[in-house]
Amino acid sequence: MDRIILHVDLDSFYASLEELRNKDVMGKPLVVCVYSGRSEDSGVVSTANYKARKLGIKSGMPIAFAKRIAKEKNVVFLPVDMEYYRTVSDRIMELLEGEAEVMEQVSVDEAYLDVTEKTRGRWVKAEEIAGNIKKKISDREGVTCSVGAGPNKLIAKMASKHRKPDGLTVVKEKDVKSFLENMPILGLHGIGPKTAKVLEELGVETAGELASFDLPMLAEKFGENTARLLRGRASGIDDSPVEPRERQQISRIGTLKEDTGDIEEIFNKIKELAEDLKGKIGKERVYFRTVSIIAVDTNLKTHLKSETIAETDDIEAALKVARKLLEGFPDENPETLLRRVGIRVSNLVYKKEQTTLKDF
DNA sequence: CGACGTGTAAC
DNA sequence: CCTTTTACACGTCG
Predict the structure, then answer these.
(1) Quick one: CA torsion of A274, A279, A284, A287, rounded to 10 degrees?
(2) Residues of A with a known catalytic role
(3) What's the pLDDT tens digit per position in A93-114?
(4) Which backbone phi and psi does A270 adopt, to 5 degrees?
(5) Does the CB of A306 sit below 7 A from strand B?
(6) Looking at the DSSP assignment, which residues form a beta bridge with residue A103?
(7) Contacts of strand C, CB cut-off 7 Å?
(8) Over 70: is that where the pLDDT of A69 sits?
């Protein structure tokens, strides 16, 4: 029996939600931004709706750059409102949970669904379920999504990307080969610009070419393990299960008002971030063992320092470690000024469900 | 093997 | 002009 996995991707989710609650921006190009607070327009574009994308505004682009493109064009710029997006997302994820045997939420706007048993491996059934999901999400929340169906997560993911917005793409087991054959390597999930560049230097341009490329030659560039992984991806092989995720780390990072090397100033920012982190740790009900500081310097290079301690859920303990790590930083990186800093806890241990006598 | 630091990728 | 959060692989060290 074929394994059948769905991947559901909410279309330019943040922008769609803003259009919904802001009737007057409907039909206009809209850009949702993460303002860093350093200057008027510092920060980046989080999500652009399709009208804005057509103008060339893309996520990840500096806001100032987007505004230059938008000049005189009646483009709406709004700040992100994660709380709101999270609330709507939670409702949608709950809905999706009911449509599958197992659901794996990947981010606010993405999830995998294992529907192998429900469909008894029949692709027509999968397409039907996918259609139902699209209709329900649109009816209840007023947003569209793109759904991909495939024999594994990798193919389902690429299928959902294949046609959007509001797409539905089914790639049956037997169609995987032709689906991938002429796909440019950058279109493969998990291959970014760095890897693509190296591959291009080897003369590899499509997934088809990568799938049959000489393994030793690949291993020379990427190491045995990654080489196998890359070739596997290119042939559409992926055995990873759809499973609910347990978070492995929780972090908060922020941008400093200005570049600085002053420990006190930096630590103040970290304290601020830790406050937010504390709430998250409580909500997730976790203990942590490792504390890290994240430091992004003037050249945007990221430095990480971490230390493992005895299991705790005390944010003060984390701050103590952070302080110590921070004090060590200037010696190891003299003359380095910081632009952004953050704090992270990892090595998480989930607290057990509170079981009281009442539960029996 | 666990801990730590770095690089890559995706959202 | 340059955000935020997470995951994973790999090399190195003790």
Answers:
(1) 50
(2) 110
(3) 999 999 999 999 999 999 999 9
(4) -60, -40
(5) yes
(6) A113
(7) A 34, 36, 38-39, 41-44, 46, 60, 62-65, 223-226, 229, 245, 247-255, 280, 296, 300, 339-340, 342, 344
(8) yes
The position carrying tokens 């959007």 is A164
> Count of CB atoms within 10 A of residue A328's CB?
12
- Is any atom of nucleic acid chain B found less than 7 Å from the CB of residue A46? no
Q: Are strands A338-346 and A249-260 parallel, antiparallel or unpaired?
A: antiparallel
Q: Is the four-CA dihedral A87, A88, A89, A95 of positive or negative sign? A: positive
Establish whether the CB of A303 is closer than 7 Å to any nucleic acid atom in strand B. yes
d(CA A342, CA A312): 19
Tokens coding A140: 């209840």
Question: Hey, what are A305's tokens?
Answer: 């320092």
Nucleotide nearest the Cα atom of A228 (by C1'): C9
Burial call A265-284: b when 16+ CB within 10 Å, e when fewer: ebbebbeebbeebbeebeee
d(CA A280, CA A275): 9
pLDDT class for A359, splitting at 50, 70, 90? very low
Question: Pick from A331, A309, A335, A332: which is nearest to A321 by CA?
Answer: A309
Residue A148 corresponds to which tokens in the numbers above?
Answer: 């991909």
Identify whether the C-beta of residue A207 lies closer than 8 Å to the C-beta of residue A187. Answer: yes
Question: Parallel, antiparallel, or unpaired: how do β-strands A168-170 and A338-346 relate?
Answer: unpaired
Q: How many residues would you count in chain A?
A: 360
pLDDT tens for A207-245 read: 999 999 998 888 888 888 889 889 999 999 998 999 988
Check whether residue A198 has its CB closer than 7 Å to nucleic acid strand B: no
Distance from residue A184 (CA) to nucleotide B3 (C1'), in Å? 38
Which sign, positive or negative, has the C-alpha torsion A239, A193, A156, A84?
Answer: positive
Query: Which positions on chain C have an atom < 7 Å from some protein CB?
Result: 1-11
| Contact between residue A122 and residue A131 where contact means Cβ atoms under 8 Å apart | no
What is the nearest nucleotide to A198, using C1' and CA? Answer: B8
Across all strands, nucleotide nearest A192 (CA–C1'): B9
Minimal CA–CA distance to A183: which of A196, A194, A167, A170?
A196
Q: Is the pTM of this model over 0.85?
A: yes
